[in-house]
Amino acid sequence: MTIKGRKFQSSFNLVILRQKLLIDVPTTTRAQLAAEYLEYCRSNGTPPIDSVLQQIRELPENTIGGTTRAPRLLLADCSLLGTAPTDALEALMRKVQFRKVELDHTDIDDEGAEALFDMIEYYESATALCIVGPRHFGIRGWQAASRMIKKSSSLSELEVSGGPLEPSHAPVLARALRPAACRLRALALQRAELAGESLLCLVIALKTNTSVRELRLGDNSLSPTDAAQIASLLRSNTRIQLLDLSNNQIQDSGLGFIADAIVNQAAHSPPSPSTISPLSSRGYESRGLAFLVLWNNQLTRNCAHHLSKLLRSCPSLCVLNVGRNALGAEGVRALAEHGALASLVSLGLQAARLQHDARALSALIRADTRLQRLDLRENKFGVSGLQAILSAMKENTTLTQIDLDDPPETNNSSVNAQSCTEAATIARLLSDIRAICRRNEPATTAPDRLLRKISLTCHTAPTPKVIFNVKLSDQVMLERGGGGRRFGI
Fold first, then answer.
1. Is the pTM value of this prediction over 0.85?
2. What is the pLDDT of residue 446?
3. I want to staple 188 with a disulfide (CB 3.0 to 4.6 A). Which of 15, 159, 454, 457 is the partner?
């Protein structure tokens, strides 16, 4: 690889030289670094990127010189066509390392991608790389990305979203996931038109991968057939702890494939019990799924037996989100029976069509579980449904957070005595439920309470930007949107 005319072949020498480059960087101020970037732009014959200059001026002083990583470098809506704009960025990259580098709807071709990815790998510039929006680079760019993934000792998170991953490019990316030396822990391929051949390439590579713990494949139009491919991955790979399949179309039959795979996985390689939290120091080495997101996958009440089988076979599972699916009371009833919820800490049932029969939900709340968080928004329970929830909560000792919708706002022109009375009753019931959640709060934080404040909010509408914030190493967030009241916080 060549950086500014210097060619290195030994990986050992590369590490030593990287460290020496950072150690030997003289003390540099933000103003001096901005001036160096402008000089690099002038010598490469390319205009400076205004947003880069602004980010340089806002850098914490202790990040210049490689002692501390800056939060992020955002390259949004700019041009990195050809090598000149990226070569100019070397003025910054050689002196500052970042936790995250983001390419957000950036015009970048093969030449620019090769230069940037080689630079990120050489200077260990990022622990996370996000590529959002359509991409204009082809095989050469993906080959450079593959080399970066294989050689970088710092890069642990990769997100590619908002543009198709072409079937001809998927094998190149897949090759970087096969080596035992792969260090990626989080892989997100979302809104990437991944169904079919591209998914198959990645599944084959991930079957032998031992580093990836978080796999997010949301918004890819995945079908039941694609779910069968993911099931084959789960049979072979017991190290994946977080699987996000939100906003696909795997349907009941696809969930059946995944449930069978988890049963098979548990039989041949018993998962770690959920008492070993993925957030604990031992969590990285634990086996079996801990987080499963099935939001908006056209599931119906007929998937109830699949969910029940999956939960009974997977004691490692801590968080399950099946919101925005038509489970109905029958689906919830299956979850409450036969101790299926014994391991769960958080359960997402937002918009699950539960409003017509609260008895099944009451049975779930009364069940002997470890459940600490329950999301019930957008189910339109009304007074009778909330009364049933409150009655069940009086017998519950574990739930510390229940998400429910705020009382509906009343239009002054249409207010009458009945609507005022109903709104006041709903507000009182919500307040009483919240009080019981506070009552259930432990006096001290026990080890099994680490996952208590996990957001289960998702959305179905496509957004221009995807937040890459689900980490097993931090307090886990599965949030993609807002709204609704959270009780027990």
1. yes
2. 56
3. 159
